[in-house]
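Hi all, long-time lurker, first post. I run a small reading group and we've been trying to get comfortable going from sequence to structure in the token notation. Rather than ask abstract questions, I figured I'd post a concrete chain and ask someone more experienced to write out its structure so we can walk through it together at our next meeting. Sequence below, copied exactly:
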Amino acid sequence: MAVYAIGDLQGCLGPFERLLERVSFEPSRDRLWLVGDLVNRGPQSGACLRRVRDLGEAAVVVLGNHDLHLLATAAGFRSLRPKDTLKQVLDRADAAELLEWLACRPLIHHDPKLGWTLVHAGIPPAWNLETAQREARRVEHVLRDSAARRTFFEAMYGNTPDRWSDTLDGVDRLRYTVNAFTRMRFLQRNGALDFEESGPPEGAPARLSPWFGVPGRLTAGQPIVFGHWSALGYRHGRDWLSLDSGCVWGRRLTMARIDDAGPRDAPVWHEDCH
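-- Answer (accepted) --
Happy to help. Here is the structure in token form:
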């Protein structure tokens, strides 16, 4: 069995299919980890969501910020924006089924045998793996209840609180968790999440550090694969692997095989997006 991880699809079905063909992906044998953001801004959001859903247990998906945008839009708490392609999903005859399936995806997936962890944006440096899993479960419990998630979507958007404390409660705790798992790139020196800077680390102000580069990060040494950060692109460190190489922006879609390799030596395939 091979385990592959793939970057943000965002409705780019063609490159996705070509990558699966290149590695002769077999759902009965192989597994595919998807870093989230299956939908939005790309040309085939509805078809991408259906294709991944049809992979069944062969696909492991974590939620990204655009996936949450879709769910919030469907629930009436977010308006469609000019660049959105979410209507492709909402207008489908099977939209209700796809949305319910999406709402039941986790924020984090950890495979103790492989030693790898899958998230969309990252894990806050102040969290160890156990804390990350615990806080993810709090949000997942809300999202999997149709009434509770409607209430949460009404208050989900916002940049505060931007610093972690175990004393956070209620919607503030949930919002921090969602922002950390699905929006995080940089942290300030005081540990606050920064939502202004989205470029590559080498161009960021000195006051900011990428989440994976913060000294004392509690998940250091544990391989983490993530997406979300298209300006970072395909890169790797000792214990992290970034796979969002900007397919939806006309660059490429990236996939890595992670079952028999670490972040630095995982075999990688790229497919141009056109």
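A couple of things your group might point at:
The chain has one domain: 3-272.
The chain has a mean pLDDT of 97.
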